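tl;dr need the bound structure. longer version: we got a ligand (magnesium ion) that a collaborator sent over and nobodys looked at where it sits. i said id run it. heres the input, straight from their email, havent touched it
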Amino acid sequence: MTDNIKQVRIVEVGPRDGLQNISSIISTKKKVEYINRLTKSGLPEIEVTSFVSPKWVPQLADSFEVSNSITKDPSITYTALIPNQRGLDRAIDAGYTSIAVLTATSETFSQKNTNCSISDGLKVLKSMVPSWSKSSLRVRGYISTVWHCPYEGAINAKSVLTIIDQLLDIGISEISLGDTIGKATPDEIKRTLETILYRFDASHFAFHMHDTFGHAEENIHVGLEMGITTYDSSAGGLGGCPYAPGASGNVATESVISICESLGIHTGVDKNLLKSAGDYMIGVIDQGVFERA
Ligand code: HMG
Ligand code: MG
């Protein structure tokens, strides 16, 4: 199957997923510089920030300022994560035409992350359909805890199918499958994906691998073998523990590019420029840790 894949689409999530976990205060100016550097590397899509409650994620409280200060390249899709109508309105005000929404397979994770049940969260998504349709937004849907939940353990693939059905029903046709805690092994990835692909076309799905236990690269190989062509990743593997910058977090975008290069698959991303953007932010984070010490 890998032989048939000529092109992979990388969604850079470092500015959102990476920075939401960092305990240092990063200035808006430095975030903007980082995103501008990412823009120059040829990525097709960058998840810039989230419009969630600043009480829940203070790290991204400057999402409006960041969004309005970056230099946008019209060939790149800039996306913002939103949890509710308030977030959607803020994202539209900030000029977004692409948003990402979130749900999960685990009730406990849903409660901890969004303070509501899975079904109430899906009702919130449904209630936003008229607004995002009116504004002709492109909508991407995250499903978290597809393989493992930090609170409930291993997840049954059948509950993933139920969520996919509901997202497709409300017109969300790009679904990013999250290994939220980076615990899934290649065998587990394969088994769940087989169950999913028995019913749905691979073109609907992206992989969103965190790399806590070092399985992410192998898991991406499994994804490629099974026809997945969109991968979320973070330059420098940002995220995770604020005192170990560059460790764990999302799979590094450099790694996704290297895997693709080794298989002759085109990504369109300049690895050196990408790496320098990640290095820039890792330096900023290191400096913050140093200043706090
Ligand atoms: P809540 O506390 O139940 O909501 O949070 P609320 O309606 O009671 O609001 C609380 C306060 O937040 C109020 O302010 C609201 O106005 C305000 P107050 O009246 O107290 O001054 N508020 C907002 N402000 C700005 N923008 C908004 C917004 N919404 C409410 N959009 C809520 C519910 C969903 C808002 C909250 O739980 C939340 O923001 N959760 C998001 C948490 C988050 O961002 N988690 C990380 C992203 S998910 C992830 O990383 C996984 C992923 O990467 C995939 C994977 O790895 O698996 C995507
Ligand atoms: Mg994530």
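gonna send this back to them w/ a short note. The CA atoms of residues 256 and 262 lie 10 Å apart.
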